[in-house]
């Protein structure tokens, strides 16, 4: 391990493709931890000072102003001669696996986790089903002494700490069209809705329904509503297609010749009219469903707006309540102090006015007991005044009582 200047380090160009930055609510604590303890664990870099693990620690150091960071340098050959893996793929494998393991909960972004799995399968040569030929299996065939077994989907799932079913669900996200992948990545579309409903459709169907429903409406729909709307649209389109085919079939019928001079038209015009009516009815039903969808979306938007306004009003009321309580306490304190000032002023000017006792003091000035008692009382009062001064702000001028 050695200390290296942060300015010399290079971020991996694909790090953001696979991993998000630490979210804002955790970033401040992360910064405080590094300020308090420093970078405890060294980051991992290549011999070319390309960061493999530690992008977030480097980012935090830059923000704090730390100039050097402890690094562990890993040397990567141009190619792994045993596994025939290129240097770039060896680095990428370590980037993905190390970061998934270090973050403890894997990759919290499901879309980026799906990309990690796809990239690891490419590097390991894992085929669909997990039992296909890959470089590990090929190496076993070439060298019987080589102990590593061929990688499977099950092996990969264990390696990154998830179940095989979870791995397969992540993989389905890679089958989404780019627009849906973007919604999953930003959290606007739940991953469960994405792989349970959208990923089951071919991409051309995904694109069609995405355009029909619209991006903003997709964000607001629950999984159940999404499934219901897509199912209804599919049923209507299938029925529409069937009616269209029947209509075209009737229209295309050839007239039959009865005699050389008379031709009979076998077209069933009544059937055609009936099909046209059903087709029109289907279109009307489709429009009604789309109208219902728009109404539901508008209601959802209104509920969301009302909820935000309610939270704001609730926050304002809480703020005003606290402010009122603070003002009440201030008024109570000011009233109490004002009463004390009035009482002391009255007590000093009326009961303790020195002029009232001037004659007695002159007559008793040679009495040591009286003089000592008065001196002690003056000291006590002076002490009380000094203690009260400590509670007064320095910049405020005040009048000494004695």
Automatic annotation (TrEMBL):
GO terms for cellular component: chromosome. One of its GO terms (biological process) is chromosome segregation. PANTHER family: CHROMOSOME-PARTITIONING PROTEIN PARB-RELATED. Gene3D superfamilies: 1.10.10.2830, Conserved hypothetical protein from pyrococcus furiosus pfu- 392566-001, ParB domain. This is ParB-like N-terminal domain-containing protein. Keywords: Chromosome partition, Coiled coil. InterPro entries: Chromosome_partition/occlusion (IPR050336), HTH_ParB/Spo0J (IPR041468), ParB/Sulfiredoxin_sf (IPR036086), ParB_N (IPR003115). Residues 219-330 form a coiled coil. The keyword Transcription regulation does not apply. Pfam families: HTH_ParB, ParB_N. Residues 2-91 form the ParB-like N-terminal domain. It comes from the Bacteria.
């Amino acid at each position: 391990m050695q200390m290296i200047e942060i300015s010399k380090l290079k971020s991996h160009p694909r790090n953001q493709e696979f991993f998000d930055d630490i979210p804002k609510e955790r970033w401040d604590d992360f910064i405080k931890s590094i300020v308090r303890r420093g970078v405890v664990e060294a980051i991992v870099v290549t011999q070319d000072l390309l960061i493999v693990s530690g992008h977030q620690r480097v980012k935090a150091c830059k923000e704090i102003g730390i100039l050097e960071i402890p690094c562990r340098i890993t040397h990567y050959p141009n190619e792994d001669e045993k596994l025939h893996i290129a240097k770039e793929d060896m680095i990428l494998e370590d980037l993905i696996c190390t970061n998934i393991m270090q973050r403890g909960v894997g990759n919290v972004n499901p879309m980026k986790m799906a990309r990690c799995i796809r990239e690891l399968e490419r590097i390991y040569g894992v085929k669909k089903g997990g039992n296909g030929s890959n470089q590990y299996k090929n190496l076993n065939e070439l060298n019987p002494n080589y102990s590593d077994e061929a990688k499977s989907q099950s092996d990969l799932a264990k390696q990154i700490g998830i179940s095989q079913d979870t791995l397969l669900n992540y993989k389905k996200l890679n089958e989404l069209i780019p627009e849906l992948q973007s919604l999953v990545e930003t959290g606007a579309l739940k991953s469960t809705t994405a792989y349970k409903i959208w990923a089951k459709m071919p991409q051309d169907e995904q694109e069609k329904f995405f355009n029909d429903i619209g991006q903003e409406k997709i964000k607001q729909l629950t999984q159940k509503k999404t499934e219901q709307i897509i199912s209804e649209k599919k049923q209507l389109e299938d029925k529409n297609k069937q009616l269209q085919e029947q209509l075209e079939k009737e229209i295309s019928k050839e007239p039959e010749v009865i005699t050389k001079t008379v031709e009979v038209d076998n077209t069933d015009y009544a059937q055609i009219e009936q099909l046209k009516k059903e087709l029109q009815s289907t279109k009307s039903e489709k429009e009604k469903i789309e109208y219902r969808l728009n109404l539901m979306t508008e209601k959802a938007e209104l509920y969301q707006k009302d909820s935000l306004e309610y939270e704001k009003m609730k926050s304002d009321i809480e703020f005003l309540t606290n402010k009122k309580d603070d003002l009440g306490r201030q008024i109570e304190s000011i009233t109490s102090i004002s009463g004390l000032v009035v009482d002391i002023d009255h007590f000093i000017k009326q009961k303790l006015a020195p002029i009232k006792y001037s004659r007695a003091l002159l007559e008793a000035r040679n009495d040591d007991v009286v003089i000592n008692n008065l001196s002690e009382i003056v000291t006590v009062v002076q002490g009380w005044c000094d203690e009260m001064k400590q509670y007064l702000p320095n910049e405020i001028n005040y009048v000494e009582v004695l």
